[in-house]
Amino acid sequence: MSNSLTEHIDYYLNAQGLMVFTAHYHLQRGYCCGNGCLHCPYNYEAVPEPKRSEMQQRRAAQQDQQSR
Predict the structure, then answer these.
(1) Is the pTM of this model over 0.90?
(2) Model confidence pLDDT, tens digit, residues 10-20
């Protein structure tokens, strides 16, 4: 993975000015880091329970809301 990051591809700045990594960035990294990242494409596989289940449920609820 390259050391340079590209805004709007690898990350974006949220309303609070914090850097949020995109799913693209995570896929390039190649694994779940276990921190519960917002755009984790690995279904939070390295996040310990019970946090993993809570995050999976929250994501499912958000996706359900978006599909309506």
Answers:
(1) no
(2) 999 999 999 99
